[in-house]
Amino acid sequence: MSSATAIIITAAILGMVWALAQFLLISRIPVKSEGISDSTGLVTGSNDEATTRRLTEIYNAIYEGAESFLRAEYRICAWFICVFGAIIFILVAWGTGWDFARGLFTALSFVLGACTSILSGYLGMKVAVYSNVRTTVSAQKSGWTLCFNTAFRAGAVMGFALCGLGIFMLYISLLAFRIHYPQAEDWIYLTECLTGYGLGGSSIAMFGRVGGGIYTKAADVGADLVGKVVHGIPEDDPRNPATIADNVGDNVGDVAGMGSDLFGSFAEATCAALVLGSSIGLSGGWDAMVFPVAVSAVGIFVCLLCSFIATDISTVKKEADVEKALKIQLISTTILMVPAVYFASETFLPGEFELRATVGLDVITLHPWQACMCVIMGAFGGLIIGLITEYYTSHSYKPVRELADSCKTGAATNMIYGIALGYKSAIIPVLVLAVVVYGSFALADMYGVSLAAIGFLSNLATGLTIDVYGPVCDNAGGIAEMAELEPYVREKTDALDAAGNTTAAIGKGFAIGSAALVSLALFGAFVTRIRHSSADELFQDGVNMLEPVTFSFLIVGGMIPFAFAAMTMKSVGVAAMEMVLEVQRQFDEKPHLLDANPTERPDYDACIAISTKASLKEMVPPGAMVILTPLLTGIFFGVYAVSGLLVGSLVASVQLAISMSNSGGAWDNAKKYIEKADADSDLKGKGSDIHKAAVVGDTVGDPFKDTSGPALNIVMKLMAVLSLVFADTFYAVNSGNGVFQL
């Protein structure tokens, strides 16, 4: 066994074992409403049986709602996997001169990637639902350590399990394919077959992000509009019929969908780096070629060590410590990745190794320090983008406070300020991306760009931990409100959630930045593969954007993200309208539901059914558009058209994703900032007209930050990886000129 194989397999298994250990710690917490105590076992105090029954009832309702939606969604995904897997097998085999081995291996890796993505999302949902009620129970205790650690460990289960499982499945696939392709000269085919793994992960992520996003935001918008704006009842009030659906949505969208999304990023970044660096195996051997996987593996060790900082070394003892603890996780893992990546580059890469240039016929001689610098540039570029995102979305800083002030003159000025904030927030991240792309390309050609993308995702386990932490705390607050626990419990979970909102925005910044670099790396891999298929007849001197068909499709590609955002936004609007009508119908037919202490519960199931039906129906058209556009473009218009399409989509998606995500996050935190204000302050606090204007902004921002914005990451990645998988097929159609031979 090579040293790289030993490190990679060990890290993958360690990640999964650590996830299990964190889950066992969470499982020690019984679901009991008890008196104030900070003991770890939670066995002291008197058990309030009625409240415990209510907690269990709410927990079961959220679990059943999430379970039923994911089962329905994954049934549709299963049909898609079968049909599209067969299409991949036939088209790839035909495109490679009926090489059935390559067609079969690509289809198998697609199925494996899709199933791993499904498993990742489902596991995340199960853990989040299991943990949120236990976070609520922990928040009843005095102090902050226990409730923070519970939510943080829930995130760690998802983060480490997904990273460990993803690395394990990908590397086992590599080793299995190596049996058929034992010679270094054939490893180009091995890596090309593995691109199906990234396509499978990204395809399921598309349905998970869009379907889950529509589900959660339809419920959230409907609950907010009728509950908070019209009737003035608090968020997550048990009298609101949409409140269970809203909490279910947090799990299927913000956890399951997001888990699949980031798994897809990891899979695609790794596949792109392996394709671009497949020629390294000729001079550097197997360990050098799988260096990108080794970087992700050492990232698990780093994230595991740093997790002790939050839970054991510098524990959370007061509200102010929460955001600091989460931010320290991101900063510490990024800093520790520097020596870890240096170790990996010096251990697995030879003193000199050769790489074929993406453009031209040159063979580039590289050294380990160049590869190391590319990864480090990506890691710190991600951190900078994350911190800039925090500045624009946290109410600790000027932009969000200005946004809150704009609510004094109504919802319209709030909307204007929020949209402007989103556009402005894209400037520095785009400049950072430009510097990282230029620097990494100058150091190691397009392979360097793919390594920078790996660097963005090198602390993925920590990023996922923090991302899942937010929805768990949000659900914990909802459960506290629905179970009518003491106000201090909700205040505590809200404080945990507020920090989670900010760090989730940082996580989205990481995800968008990494998606941009992954897409660019996949585009480079597409060019490399077309050059290989055409024996350097096409793209030897790069892609000429002034070719008429290339430039034409550049404009078309720039339109795709806007069409996608329009479709998903409208889907949320349509589903939210149904939800509003259903909630209002229940209030009209049973006005006593709005009493301070109603004797009857609302019909929660009706609202869950609306969200489920709408999301499953509405997720198909945008997903089909993203999948079919590059496929049909390549077959009918050729590889020059695909090149323009991918570049246009990448450039537009980055700007739109950053602006939408940050506008939505800023509106959300501006609302929270106003809610924290006293009634006699300038902002008037909860229930005021200023607060209502902020709620409108937050409601509009929900699909911005949780449906369309994050899903745009997948748009640029999925189009690029699909083009890479079918590159040989596109070339086989009239030597890459397409059916129409334009």
Report what the structure shows:
There is one protein chain. 64% of the residues are buried. The protein is an all-alpha fold and 742 residues long. The protein has helices at residues 3-27, 49-95, 100-139, 145-180, 187-230, 243-276, 280-289, 291-313, 319-348, 368-393, 398-406, 411-425, 427-456, 460-482, 487-533, 548-589, 604-618, 620-637, 639-676, 689-725, 727-732, and strands spanning 353-356, 363-366. Strands 1-2 form a two-stranded antiparallel sheet.
Shape: globular
Strand residues, percent: under 5%
The number of distinct β-strands equals: 2
Mean pLDDT: 89
Distance between the termini: 51 Å
The ordered H/E elements are HHHHHHHHHEEHHHHHHHHHHHH
Number of helices: 21
Strand order of the biggest β-sheet:
1-2
Describe this protein with a few key phrases.
mainly alpha; 742 residues; two-stranded antiparallel sheet; globular
Tell me briefly what this model is.
The chain is mainly alpha-helical and 742 residues long. It has helices at residues 3-27, 49-95, 100-139, 145-180, 187-230, 243-276, 280-289, 291-313, 319-348, 368-393, 398-406, 411-425, 427-456, 460-482, 487-533, 548-589, 604-618, 620-637, 639-676, 689-725, 727-732; strands at residues 353-356, 363-366.
